Amino acid sequence: MQITDEDFEQHRQKFQKCRKALHALGNESRQEICMILMMNSDGLRVADLVQQVNLSRSVVSHHVKVLIEAGIVKSRKEGTYIYYYLDMEGRVSDQLIAYFQSVKSILRRLPDRSGE
Fold first, then answer.
1. pLDDT single digits (tens) 83-116
2. Per-residue DSSP letters for 9-68?
3. Cβ contacts of residue 40 below 8 Å, gap of 6+?
């Protein structure tokens, strides 16, 4: 089956929706923070994250901010504390899934390039 211009345009639009999330997840420190938050579904404070990664408080705060802006992490306030948690039920996770499904679909339709 041939890949059409419309297929590529739809794929490009899906990519644009995911661009911030893909950028945010492209950093190893942010990946580590996401993994830590995944294992702590109740959420963690920045101070808790600092104890688990080899980074300063200001660097962890910056990474958390990038993850929030990308729609990957959310926060909730309890008294004077702010807890951060992964938002895997949100719009961004659905957009990432749709994007990678689009990649898979396009790659399946490309001619075999293995040379065999």
1. 999 997 889 999 999 999 989 888 888 877 655 5
2. HHHHHHHHHHHHHHHHHTSHHHHHHHHHHHT-TT-B-HHHHHHHSSS-HHHHHHHHHHHH
3. 48, 85
The predicted-structure confidence for 72-86, as pLDDT tens digits, reads as follows 999 999 999 999 999
Tell how far CA 35 is from the center of its chain. 11
For 58, the token pair is 């200001």
3-state secondary structure of 108: helix
Query: For residues 115 and 93, what is the distance between their CA atoms, to the nearest angstrom?
Result: 35
In angstroms, the first-to-last Cα distance of the chain is 20
CA-based nearest residue to 90, from 77, 75, 100, 102: 75
Task: Please give the model's pTM, rounded to 2 decimal places.
Answer: 0.85
The arithmetic mean of pLDDT across residues 5-29, rounded, is 93
Task: Look up residue 115 and give its two tokens.
Answer: 């040379």
Using the 8-state DSSP alphabet, how is residue 70 labeled? T
Residue 35's identity, in one-letter code, is: M
Q: Residue 78 forms beta bridges with which residues?
A: 81
In angstroms, the CA 29 to CA 38 distance is 14
